[in-house]
Every structure is written in structure tokens, then in C-alpha cells.
């Protein structure tokens, strides 16, 4: 049994919801309904036997995943021209039928996402996919690609689609890189918690069962990404550390960490965890504060109405949650700063993100 270490009731509710969605990705809602209508005391563990690793990895992610905590998408920081080159290559032709989504993932974050005009994709379904893609049973498979049925509960809780998963690159942990692994406890800059999150994966979601056609198309776009040098550009960006950033890059006095969510894009960005949040205990503390602030400004802490701004100061840090029409932000600073300086720092973070949003967020991705 997994016991939440965060101690926040709303967060525990969110964790249980994600676990429920992960179960639905394996056994659809309609299947569960039929089973329990026949036998109300059915032991679900029998049905989930062999899939425990997916639930365990989901629990691991939930503890530190700021994108999941804010119901957002976390994109790889990337030059917008490189992102566009990748996206343009991944747009399916009219000859390829039944494709619903095409996603390229690097270092546990989304590089780009291609979808039909009439179909958006819910962040929760993306997190289910990310957890599935980076599960050791998939990542460590000797096969060149995996073809698995999966239910995306927010898309359709009662049916399966098929996911074609191909790792274009599996980063070698022994290979030197100036970029910290987002999965390492010392530098967990993304929501990732496993070494496999360092790879680059192409994911194609199909409503049909024509494996050969999907495989042929994916092989073709992979070859094009390689031949045109786009995959190398992406790899160079990751290995050089350009996909990461630290609070020092912002140059804001007293700033220690922040989480910024673009409400229009439903995407989140945050810097790497550095001193004083390098160890897990301190990181749990600041994430717990973020969750308390999140619950307060979203009226999930028992109050009758939302709070646009919430401020907490302790001996260790000052933290503030702030929600506006374009964004919501959670920010951690030195406890020595006066509240006015905290507000000033939050405004400075907002300006910096606005300036960098082309690199931080996935915008204007092509549709088909």
C-alpha cells in the first residue's frame, strides 16, 4: 500500500483520481461496470495482475509531478523553430487513416503534439500516456516498438485505442551531459522520476488496428527527422542543457523556485530544483506549500470563495500563490524579503515567462 507523504487532503483526492484513471486505461469503465454488476465483491487485483508496475510508477510520479498537480501539460523548453520543424514532420498524410494523436516526448516532457481539428486531448490522458510510455516494461523492451491497447479515459472511458510507441533515442546514463537528468533526486526539474524518462519517444495513437500502416508511417517520419538533422538538433538541445533553466537565469533577488501555469495554454513551466530544495525532504516541503496555496486559490480548502492571492511565510521561506485571468503562479523566495518584494518578484517572473513563452510553451501546433 502506498501512503501519501504530502499530508494534503485535496492532493490525496487528486492522487486517487489519477490512480482510478490509470486503472481505467487498463480496464475500461464499461468493463468494470459489467464486472461489478455481476459480482459486487469481485477482487480487482485478479484483473490487474501483472500491471502493478504502472500503478506504482504513477504513484511515484504523483508525489513530485507539478504538471499533474496543476492539471497541466509540461513541454520541453525548445527553440520554437526546432519545435516547428519537428511538428511539421509529424503531420500525418491523408493516406494514413485512424490516427488520433501524434506526440514526441523527450526527457519526460512533450516536444510537440499533433491532433485532428475536432479532437483536443485532456492533460490527464497525456499523463496516462507518459506514465505508460516510460514504464520499464515498455522502455526496456527489446522490441523496436510497442503496440498496446490503451483506454484514454477523458477521451472515451468505455473503449480502447492503440498506441504505437517507438524510442528514437535511449539516452545512455554513462554518457556525459551538461543537462541534469530530470529523474535524478538531485535535480528533478520535470515531473519525471525514472531513468527511462531521459529517452526520446514517438507515440502514435490510432483508433484503428492497422499496425503495419502505422509502423510504416512512423518509420518514415523517424527517417525524415534523422535525415534532415532535426532529431540531432533536438538531441543537441537536450544534451547541452538548453532544455533546462534555473532561477539564476531570471536574475530576481531572493527567488528560489516557482511554478507558472498558462491558463490559456493549460501548460506549466518551472525551473530545476536547486539549493535549498536539492534534497527530497525540502522538496516535499515546498511542493506541499504549493499544494496548500493551490487549494486555497481554487476554493478547495473549505472557504466559501476563491482567494486571488495567498501568502505564507515561515522561518525557511516565503511562498505565494497568485491567480489572474492569464496565469496562476506559485513562488518561493527568501523569508527575509518583505511581502511587497515578493509581489514584485512574482511580477518579474510573469514578465520573464511572457518574454520566453515561445520556448517554454507549445503554441500553434499543427492540426490535421
UniProtKB/TrEMBL annotation:
Q: What is the lineage of its organism?
A: Eukaryota, Fungi, Dikarya, Basidiomycota, Agaricomycotina
**What membrane topology was assigned to this protein in its record?**
Peripheral membrane protein
Q: Name one GO cellular component term.
A: multivesicular body membrane
Residue ranges, compositional bias (Low complexity) = 175-192
Pfam families (alphabetical): Fuz_longin_1 (PF19036), Fuz_longin_2 (PF19037), Fuz_longin_3 (PF19038)
Family membership: Belongs to the MON1/SAND family.
- Show the segment(s) annotated as Disordered: 172-196
Any GO BP annotation: autophagy
Provide the protein name.
Vacuolar fusion protein MON1
Q: What does this protein do?
A: Required for multiple vacuole delivery pathways including the cytoplasm to vacuole transport (Cvt), autophagy, pexophagy and endocytosis.
Would I find Transport among this entry's keywords? Answer: yes
Which residue ranges does the record assign to the FUZ/MON1/HPS1 third Longin domain? Answer: 254-357
